[in-house]
């Protein structure tokens, strides 16, 4: 049985004043000095162990998990889940919650304080809803315990959570950061603040518990467990206190029908009028708690013979519902709380979904009651027939059309969760409070796709200037960027001509190759050297993208390397000609400077402004600016003047007269070109 749980930063433990132990077939009395109230947390546990360890009563176990990086909450797929196992005979379990900040491999003293929420649950992961979204219909939400950690030091904080007399078996901890604004950051641009969380579990088990009376073997019962009773004398009561423990077992005449959950699929069940029919669904530990338990009742109306019969079902964990009142329609007693289902002639179908069900035995009690003027009463000679279906599924309705059911793993534990899109939220992606409308989805898709049309002018300029390889790269980029964004949309306005991963790779490769070939073309290298660099760049960029598609150096590295080649080429021409290259101010004022400013603005938008909310129009502007900068930066084609013919070779001269230098000068008008003749012996 689960003990009381207190949300306190410290743990208070009281030692028993009198402890009975079994030693050499004799019951002896042992005095343990009580722990002072000011001793808390781990100090209390240590003091308790020191006082009582000489009698072999307490055993302390210690468990820890490796630190993990926490993420802002978006869905259950973004939380960090920790799995612990509490042994039998555990008196108290203490979780020590350690959280610290890191930034760039050092302590993150400058990182902002962000609250951390931790959830605890026995038997299965917690069903959490920090965003207060709506759950799907017919979904039951199991309870859990929550604890919020606040920062007490600049880069470190701790918290303590204790459970007295915890349920033995599997326990799960879930932790996350608050939801953020969804900023899209470039990986490697700056050192991000990381919040690392490490839970530690300390349990104390009481061994050699005295058995005051060992009864003979009982008859078979649904429950085969030991229950422990702790008796303590109040410090203010003097003398010896006598007590008596009386155990009374109550139950119904049950009609057990035990099957495993995956076999328990679709039988027709007859519910007698005079007593309930009870069924049990067994869920295996660890294996069956990471999905959704689905239960469906369908009433066969033709079996009622015209009677106004309602079949009530109560689903309880571990203990079947027993009630002395056969006409009761509740699933709750003083000690039990279950889930209620009902079917009748007007509503013949009822469903129940339980996310992350606790493992063990689930008991379904079915009763048929007839509606009268005085309420519900037991039916007479009417046997209702019910179609019963119970099964496990990974997610609720496979997360619908606006979500994706993701299979997640923490160590050896597998579980599933929905990841919603297009503004939909909730455990089944059914909450449309912030959902994108169809018109908005269509508009965002058209903006992201049609903004790539801006590459048409650079393609035309490249073809006109005889830059055919560059034009092919721009066409490649325009094509795959258009269809990648058509496939990348979060809503229902989606069109994929290939696998998503292939489209994404080609889009990223085309974007980087466009920058690469444009800058190399601006360097005006020899054709052979330029083609070698084009081929080498394509191979190296493909390798880099395969390693990490979102890294900063995938974009910055090739760009800087190409700019370095261009700067060296321009500097060499400037030194050799003793004139600034490109030589005309018009080229700088109307082409190079505007193109560089447009490209810089695009990079700033991409790196610092883009978020998930403004992605569709900021990224569309990115397309327009990048394509526009290419049109400005692409060098013009060199035009050979018609007035100049082939010049004869001069005798005795070691060098031939230089050809038209207009290509190197980057001039548009050939009339301003000058021809230099240098002859040396």
How would you sum up this structure, described in words?
The chain has 681 residues and is of the alpha+beta class. It has 4 domains: 5-206, Jelly Rolls, CATH 2.60.120; 256-393, GOLD domain (Jelly Rolls); 438-633; 639-681, no CATH class. It is built from 10 helices and 25 strands. It has helices at residues 41-52, 438-450, 456-464, 468-487, 500-523, 527-547, 552-577, 585-609, 615-633, 662-665, and strands at residues 5-6, 19-23, 26-30, 58-64, 68-69, 80-86, 90-103, 106-107, 116-122, 145-149, 156-164, 169-176, 193-206, 256-260, 265-271, 277-283, 292-299, 309-317, 339-343, 349-355, 360-372, 375-378, 384-393, 403-410, 413-420. Strands 1, 4, 5, 7, 8, 11 and 13 form a 7-stranded antiparallel sheet that branches. Strands 14, 16, 18, 19, 21 and 22 form a 6-stranded mixed sheet that branches. Helix 5 runs parallel beside helix 7 (552-577). The longest helix is centred in the C-terminal third of the chain and has 26 residues, at 552-577. It is elongated, with a radius of gyration of 37 Å.
Quote the distance from N terminus to C terminus. 105 Å
Count of extended strands: 25
CATH class of the largest domain: Mainly Beta
Number of domains: 4
CATH fold-level label of the largest domain? Jelly Rolls
CATH architecture of the largest domain: Sandwich
Apparent shape: elongated
Mean pLDDT: 79
The secondary structure category is: alpha+beta
Indicate the low-confidence ranges by residue numbers: 1-40, 218-223, 251-265, 641-645, 651-681
Proportion of residues in helical segments:
25-40%
Beta percentage is: 25-35%
Give Rg in angstroms.
Answer: 37 Å
Q: Give a short account of the largest sheet.
A: 7 strands, antiparallel
Count of helix runs: 10
